[in-house]
Amino acid sequence: MRFTKDHEWLSLDGDIVTLGVTAYAAQQLGDVVFVELPEIGKKLNPGDPLAVVESVKAASDVYCPIAGEVVEINQNLVSSPDFVNASPEAAGWFAKLKLAKAGSEADLDPGLMDRAAYETFLNGL
Amino acid sequence: MDALKTTALNARHQALGAKMTAFSGYVMPLNYGEGVLAEHRWTRDHASLFDVSHMGPATVELLAPGPDAAANHAQISSLLEPLLTADLQGLAPGQMRYTLLLNADGGIDDDLMVARPRDLERQGSLDLVVNAGGKAADFARISAQLGDAARLVRRDAGVLIALQGPAAEAALSAHLPHSAALGFMQASEWVWRGGSILVSRCGYTGEDGFEILCDPTIGAELWDALLASERVKPAGLAARDSLRLEAGLPLYGHDLDPTVSPLEAGLGFAVSKRRLARGDLLGADRFAQELAHGPKRVRVGLRLEAGPPAREGAEVLDAKANLIGRVTSGGPSPSLGGGVALAFVPPHLAAIGTGLFVKVRDRSVAAKVVALPFVPHRYKRSV
Fold first, then answer.
1. Residue A80 domain flag
2. Is residue B1 very low, low, confident or very high in pLDDT (cuts 50, 70, 90)?
């Protein structure tokens, strides 16, 4: 699993990357009541809007950290957006993107952090 | 920019693990550890304690009250009435009203509570609570209005807490037994642990409850004493906002502003018939015009059945996608599910059941005009 400074996580399996927000992000967002997910087939570039997370208080944008095509979205979040709070780094995943080519997590954007680096980053906040 | 102020309960919020936010010049608890949804639901089912010390309590008082208590009340009322919509002279001792501070154009500069004290020796005084954001301007304007006969004494260095929810009466009367006898919109002053404490049966969540003003030492003790009850938990500004939204209550600076009239806002009930008859209301021409021909826009409640909630600023569209108004407050309704919103729309599109749309990002979400409040009020009205 890799992490961004914007508190998203990515998990790569072949050419499919699964995206979500971290436990830290979920805690900061508060109770999630609605998640607006991208359409399947949408091609995203780094920095493009990936999702909008609505809590009681506010709507927060989540941006795509990587280039790829949306091949699957987490339909469970439609009926149970609270999965984002209950299981942010597993059942609360947002979308799966197909990358241009298969690879390993180490080949992804060097700006991404592994768990140890992300935890160090969190401790510095 | 001035530094943010803290309330006298700040250390308690920190100790309770509150997430703090800047609001109207103060650092205030947004929510505590259990989060907004839990706090919202706890308030509806039990009782929650809110620190609202950022708001603007004050007392206006005659400088030289005479021997006749009724005459003193009439005098202080007639001094303050020209700025407000209420019949203050008609208040009974211990009675309070929700009222509006108007500008010369008949728009709403603030909304506030005014109470006539119950104690005989305080006739000739009125107790107010204005919004945090309006304090400086309201107090200056009221002080100028009072002239040399009376003065305004700020009380916002004190602790103001709101205890809201069906268990509020039981929780407060354990410490102040007489408070249970207050009916909705009644106020009284007592001595508690050696200090004066002003208790009003009111609030802004739609639930039964109290707002309590006292000095900081007693306030902190009362906060602790109330939280010691199993049925009372702390709640922050986020839950206060979602509760008042469900209760259909307008929030100044969002649903109300200086361009909005009482009739547009659906607050005609706050405009006294006696004051109208006397014709001394600020902006009386506009009021009469709107009463005769209807306002150009009115505040309505919208229910969004599915999809994302609509927030403040969202465009409201008619069935042909014409822009007809805007959402002034909106969000998810924890009690009802789905989204609820307050919006201003033209009167011909304001009937209950009218189908409208709200623009959320790139989609139009179906909405229906529904009766306010969204969630029924459960005030304890006196018989």
1. yes
2. low
Number of domains in chain A: 1
Q: Where are the domains of chain B?
A: 5-55+157-246, 56-142, 297-370
Q: What is the CATH number of the domain that holds A30?
A: 2.40.50.100
Check B309 against A34: CB less than 8 A apart: yes
Average pLDDT over residues A27-51: 95
Helix or strand (DSSP H, E) at B47: strand B47-51
> Which of A30, A52, A59 faces B31 most closely, judged by CB atoms?
A30
Contacts of B176 (CB under 8 A, 6+ apart): B190, B192, B197, B199
Q: Which fold has domain B297-370?
A: Elongation Factor Tu (Ef-tu); domain 3 (2.40.30)
Q: Does domain B56-142 have CATH number 3.30.70.1400?
A: yes
Residue A36 binned pLDDT confidence (cut-offs 50, 70, 90): very high
Surface-to-core class of residue A104, CB atoms within 10 Å of its CB (0-12 exposed, 13-18 middle, 19+ buried): exposed
DSSP H helices, chain B, are 10-15, 36-45, 69-80, 135-146, 168-173, 216-227, 237-246, 273-278, 284-293
Please tell me what DSSP assigns to residue B256.
B
The CATH class of the B5-55+157-246 domain is: alpha beta
Considering CB atoms only, which of B35, B38, B308 is closest to A36?
Answer: B308
- A56–B308 CB contact, under 8 Å: no
Please report residues of A whose CB lies closer than 8 A to that of B309: 33-34, 54, 59
Model confidence at A87: pLDDT above 60: yes
CB-based contact B308 A59, cutoff 8 Å = yes
Give the pLDDT confidence of B75-102 residue by residue, as tens digits.
999 999 999 999 999 999 999 999 999 9
A-B contacts at Cβ under 8 angstroms: 42
Domain residue limits at A62? 2-100
The answer to whether B334 faces chain A, any CB pair under 8 Å, is yes
Asked if A55 reaches chain B (Cβ–Cβ under 8 Å), the answer is yes
pLDDT digits (tens, 9 = 90+) for B180-189: 999 999 999 9
